[in-house]
Amino acid sequence: MTMSLDFLAVPLLTAASLLLVALVAGLFSARLGFSFLLVFLVAGMLLGEDGPGGVPFEDHRLAFWVGNVALAVILLDGGLRTRLATFRTGLAPALGLATLGVVVSAAVTGVAARWLLDLDWPRALLLGAIVGSTDAAAVFALLQTSGVRLNERVASTLEIESGLNDPMAVFLTLMLIGVASAGAAPSWGLLGDGAWSLARQFGGGLVLGVGLGLALAAGLRLLARLTRPGAGVRALLLLSAGLTVFALTTWLGGSGFLAVYVAGLVIGHRARGSVAPALQAMDGYAWMAQAGMFLLLGLLVTPSALLDTLAPALGVAAALMLVARPLAVALCLAPFRFPPREVAFIAWVGLRGAVPIVLAVFPMMAGVDGAKLFFNVAFVVVLASLLLQGASLPWAARRTGVALPDRDDPAAARRVYGDFEVPGETPMAALCAFYGWPPVDDERLSVAQWFARHCPQRPVEGDQLRWGPAELCVRRMRDGAIERIGIRLDENSGDLSSR
């Protein structure tokens, strides 16, 4: 008598084959402009009980566990790749979007949910909180695979926002679950507990992220000197260290998502030499985490159950994308004087992904009445976001003028930067005298200094200013300073203005 290994081979064959087909399909979908992650969601749905696979899956606890671990891996990888200079550029506006922006998005979406789904206020606002934050997995993946190079201010704001907004989304979700379960208006005690929880989430995540990141960076540098591990081992060290930070911070009551992102940023800055060889392997781990997470979340949904609420769920998605997100972005970015074209792009690319689906599992585990509705609506919102916002990202970047040309495309570079360029140290007064531009107030300034003084924000590549009949554009930056300025001359004239 021989022992059958079908219990191992058949599930493994099914899962591996599905992942392989989804990866290949994802590569082609990315070329067609569709989100890579959308394919994994659809593949999971096809494997589920309503699809050809016919696999029933209702283990929300497993999906919640896998989703959290996968998001931790993705945030770690994102933190490791974020340069400190980029972080400084986007931190302040991203922090506003990650806090006030989430609240505004959740509130406006909650109003739409109350009207479209006929929910009471606690449940309507709970649904708004579930879908109110952007998703790190979707943002990181789309920015990597879209083939579009965004200016640093826009890219860093989007990336850092998606890495920082999870604590606020989790706080709002848990607080509103308590309100919905109690069936009464929130008391001062509940609000006080919620405020303390939010402070603990943000403060604990930040402190532990920085502290553990510094300790791990020192340890990695020491290991690199003593043992000289290979790239694969370094990646495993980083992965295990990041998951340790996530688990420990979560256990102590802080935001594990914030902590692992900040720890990755600190490690990437303090131990760059040890981290760089492992980034290729870490990229593989991050993609595996995204693939597994979206496959499992797709498997968890029952497509036939979406039909009853499809129309109002699409209405919620439209309210989020067309009203709530633009309003939140306009309010939060107003103090930072972002150009209108950048505000428009950031408002449109508020990508929803795994986070709303994972947050929608919270009410199901808490036994909130009607929790399945939250999950179904969140799933429709994510599908709509990946289909519409994700697929249109390259078009939106070009349409709003935030896309930078490829470095190997001279024709595109001329269209963006102008027909010729000058070094940043060129005296601005000399350029004005040579081309007949209006004189400048301070003749001692170089063109780079003049540009930095008159630019409403910290200059990044692609920023443009008009001076008389000329349009000046930052063509190249080095270590945060303007190195080359592109110039385009036309027949227009006018005062200084920023585009």
UniProtKB/TrEMBL annotation:
Transmembrane spans: 12-42, 62-80, 92-117, 123-143, 169-190, 202-224, 236-267, 287-307, 314-338, 344-366, 373-397
Annotated compartments: Cell membrane
GO molecular function (one): antiporter activity
A single cellular component GO annotation: plasma membrane
Boundaries of every Transporter-associated domain copy: 413-491
Database matches in Pfam families: CorC_HlyC, Na_H_Exchanger
Top-level taxon of the source organism: Bacteria
Membrane topology: Multi-pass membrane protein
Keyword Transmembrane found: yes
UniProt record, GO biological process: proton transmembrane transport
Keywords: Antiport, Cell membrane, Ion transport, Membrane, Transmembrane, Transmembrane helix, Transport
Alphabetized InterPro entries for the sequence: Cation/H_exchanger_TM (IPR006153), FAD-bd_PCMH-like_sf (IPR036318), Na+/solute_symporter_sf (IPR038770), Transptr-assoc_dom (IPR005170)
NCBIfam families assigned: PRK05326.1-2, PRK05326.1-3
PANTHER family, per database record: K(+)_H(+) ANTIPORTER NHAP2, NA(+)/H(+) ANTIPORTER 1
Protein name as catalogued: K(+)/H(+) antiporter NhaP2
Gene source species: Tepidimonas alkaliphilus
